[in-house]
Amino acid sequence: MFADSDLLEIIRILEECYPEPVCALNYSKDYELLFSARLSAQCTDARVNMVTPVLFRRYPTLEAIATADMTELEEIIRPCGFFRIKSRDIVAAAAMLISEYDSRVPDEMEDLLRLPGVGRKTANLMLGDIHNKPAVVVDTHCIRLSNRIGLTNEKNPVIIEATLRDMLPSDKSSDFCHRLVLHGRAVCTARRPDCMNCQIAGFCQCFHGEQK
Fold first, then answer.
1. pTM for this structure?
2. Given this model, what pLDDT does residue 208 score?
3. Nearest 5 degrees, angle CA 7-CA 8-CA 9?
4. How many CB atoms lie within 10 A of CB 60?
5. What average pLDDT does the segment 31-43 reach?
6. First-residue to last-residue Cα distance in the chain
7. Which of 85, 87, 158, 86 is nearest to 120 (CA)?
8. SS3 sequence, the chain?
9. Cys-Cys link to 205, which of 11, 54, 95, 211 (CB 3.0-4.6 A)?
């Protein structure tokens, strides 16, 4: 069982290491983050950030996206992969936001999950980053680090989300997940974790040989 005091200390250390836990996806409107997150599936944030300026210049409003020429839209987002299904989801989601949500990204999990192409990871991202609600964004970094640290032994994102939601202070959960991403990219990488330079190694079960 992971001690609450240890988790609070991990949170404190990561807050010092990464004082600005911002999302790596660039956006200026709520729906831009939503569509950027859809494009990021099986694609790097860096590549998405190269594509979205072109996308949102060509289609500067939700109405423009909802009525986009599908062939043209597919060509713009082709570098992000799976461009056909992503294009269909983005157009359909834009239309639903207009028709059912007054052109705003909804602030409830159930409504977000109704949008085409939106799963729990994206829904939590929107709740946390757009609506400042408690959220647990479980991506590959979160799965890897929460297992290595010893916060969970699960691989199922839904179970991990529920576990971390119970463990984390609600006002820190969203930022904690962003900090795991930053730490996962900078130190605790998938291929070669830099344990000797990890600021939270003292609390990590993997570092102490208790987990693989």
1. 0.93
2. 81
3. 90
4. 11
5. 97
6. 16
7. 158
8. CCCHHHHHHHHHHHHHHCCCCCCCCCCCCHHHHHHHHHHCCCCCHHHHHHHHHHHHHHCCCHHHHHCCCHHHHHHHHHHHCCHHHHHHHHHHHHHHHHHHCCCCCCCCHHHHCCCCCCCHHHHHHHHHHCCCCCCCCCCHHHHHHHHHHCCCCCCCHHHHHHHHHHHCCCCCHHHHHHHHHHHHHHCCCCCCCCHHHCCCHHHCCCCCCCCC
9. 211
> What tokens were used for 40?
């990021």
**Of the candidates 211, 152, 146, 132, the residue with the CA atom closest to the CA atom of residue 184:** 146
Structure tokens belonging to residue 142: 């979160």
Q: Which residues are catalytic?
A: 121, 139
Check: CB of residue 76 under 8 Å from CB of residue 55: yes
Cα 108 to chain centroid distance, Å, stands at 16
pLDDT tens per residue, range 157-171: 999 999 999 999 999
